[in-house]
Amino acid sequence: MIPTLGVESVELHGRLSVLLAPLTNVIPLIGAAQVAFINPPVLSLDFTGAANIADFSVINGSVRKVILNIINSILTLPNRILVNLDVNNDYFQTYLYPLGIIRVTVDKASNFAEESKGKASKFFSKLTRSAPDCYTEVTVGAEPEWKTKVKPNTTHPVWDETHDFVVTDYDQVIKLTVMDQDIGADAEVGLAVLTVREALMAGSAQDLSLVKKGVESEGRLSVSTQYFPFSPISDSFSIADHRAEGLICGLATVLVAGAFGIKGPRETLKPSVVVKWGPKHHFQTGIQSDAAGVDISNPAFNQNFRIPVTADLVGGGGAAPPFRIALMNGEKEVGGVDVPFAEVVGAPMMTLSDRFDVGEGTTVRACICLRGIGAASA
């Protein structure tokens, strides 16, 4: 008696970037192909059977959100799918580093009517005469979402809050959504978008129109933006200018190419590499297992991890913590090495790549790249 349901068709709409690099002097002349959406794509689902009623329901939105989160974590910048076309391709020469940061300040919103309230807020407003309880969601590409604080009971909220986002491409979209905090589900008040490139061309302060359900409203959102390119100069960690909640003073990128000389019976090996920096940053590559075509004693990982450098870690008066690179077998650490922060800073272009000895003759080929913040672009 369970009704049938399913999805008849799935469509993705977006701008796809295909990078063919590095160039080589042997066939196929290209080391690797990298594919990614520059911004989160638009996903359309056409349900069938009993689920067809979900085409315009909460279920549709929930399903799409789950699918898009998976797609964005794999295929939307800064994430890319990497396909090696040359078995000898060097991952360190293939990876494209981020460009800089866009510092977004959400100043205030105005001119939106009380009709923008959610259903529950509208009901209670008849008794309390309340206005929306607004906050703003901000995203840049597939970077982690950031939200301002909620400003209760006002149609003219003032936030003056700032957050930094890493920029991978100048055509990444800065998406700002003003929301009304509501009982059950928050309601959208209005949406404003601009690209990083448009923000750079327009200058700092901008007054953006709010669009609701595809129609431009009278609502306005005031924002300010600053762009800071990353710099490989050792004194570019200008802590004083970037010491506040939500701000970063640089970026550490750790590339893990592979491990070599892992000891033990093939059938018992489940290698992975863990990267740690400070008390909050912990990353792990995918776990490899013995299979056809896999050299389990010398596995390739070709994964990258980005670590925001904040003032509390490098400007708190004490020495910055070392980078920990550890080789794992399943859940057990079998060896590791601590790479001092100062050693990376002192390397040429603040980039240190090596086969790091993690013990018992086993090495992990990794690259640690530090970038500070350059002068803001006008």
Automatic annotation (TrEMBL):
Q: Which UniProt keywords apply?
A: Membrane, Transmembrane, Transmembrane helix
The record, for InterPro entries, names:
C2_dom (IPR000008), C2_domain_sf (IPR035892), Extended_Synaptotagmin (IPR051634), Synaptotagmin_SMP (IPR039010)
| One Pfam family linked to the record | SMP_LBD
Using the record's annotation, list all stretches that form the C2 domain: 77-210
Task: Tell me the first and last residues of the signal peptide.
Answer: none
This chain's protein is named C2 domain-containing protein
Source organism of this protein record: Rachicladosporium monterosium
Q: What is the lineage of its organism?
A: Eukaryota, Fungi, Dikarya, Ascomycota, Pezizomycotina
